[in-house]
């Protein structure tokens, strides 16, 4: 496993285990399939992964207790915990901050956090963070030894990132960075903001919630033709891990196969060559033509008051953009159930308050509802190839 040192201190595994997308017992619940998840953690620990990232809210609050149970079977010095404090309910008062921080320590069965973050410090959450004195509380906890390194995560503009980076004394910052967002979401500028200030970067969404694995066929062919043995995920991980100021690359892994593939990528790590970068640029150009919606399936938009399954709806639409199979889209969209489909959107806008990608979700739901209605009206009930392929 490739290791990188935090400001000359103890080495961290270049691959970090993101615990936001652990295997679930079923699609209707956030309850974690512990048998599968334990196997994944044990494999990661055995192969040198020592950085584990989560949040108080992941898996509806179940991620931290699971990680605490899984990691506490190992010596405390053998792993690093990174978790986050959300600046939205259930945090509404200063008393909530103290209560939740203490609860997190108990969940992990520890008396300190290696890395601790304010969760999504951005223009949408800034008012609450400053009103409730998040930083002051956490800075005091750091001085008391409960936090080793204090940072923040962010989904916002480079300008807002610079403002917050300069506002307080930080040890590191976590941003969304991948080869698609390098230009599209100005991730390059964000990386440069942090690098110029000497702040190490931990990377979230390097595979864009799995979106950079499920590329369009043309993009996949470009990558496969160049290197048939390299997975699509490995291209994405190597892109961000090749940046010198990246400390840890987080991957929200859901299966043991994903853990094995990502560990293989980060073992005897090789940065991308100039030739490989050119190949990746060709693949990106092909993918951008599909018109996919930039959703990472993070689930922050949920639950929807009207019952719409927003992440799944976007995933089905994006799969259609990539593969152009109307029959597949119609069957899977129907399987959502009428109560979870896009036409149920009431345009309340609650989802947009928490969307890290700043997607205009109600507008997109309206468009997808019209698209789905047309597909269901015109698509045959049987998958005859000539009838279902749409250009």
CATH homologous superfamily designation of the largest domain:
NADP-dependent oxidoreductase domain
SSE class: alpha/beta
Shape: globular
What is the percentage of strand-forming residues? 5-15%
Average pLDDT reading: 88
Number of domains: 2
Distance between the termini: 44 Å
Number of strands: 10
Secondary-structure element sequence?
EEEHEHEHEHHEHEHHEHHEHHHHHH
Low-confidence stretches: 383-391
Q: Please name the CATH topology of the largest domain.
A: TIM Barrel
CATH architecture grouping of the largest domain = Alpha-Beta Barrel
Largest sheet: 8 strands, parallel, barrel
Please work out how many helical segments DSSP would assign.
Answer: 16
**What is the CATH first-level class name of the largest domain?**
Alpha Beta
Estimated radius of gyration? 21 Å
Q: Which percent bin holds the helix content? A: 40-55%
Task: Give a brief rundown of this model.
This protein has 391 residues and is an alpha/beta fold. It has 16 helices and ten strands. The chain has an eight-stranded parallel β-barrel with strand order 3-4-5-6-7-8-9-10, surrounded by five helices. A two-stranded antiparallel ribbon has the order 1-2.
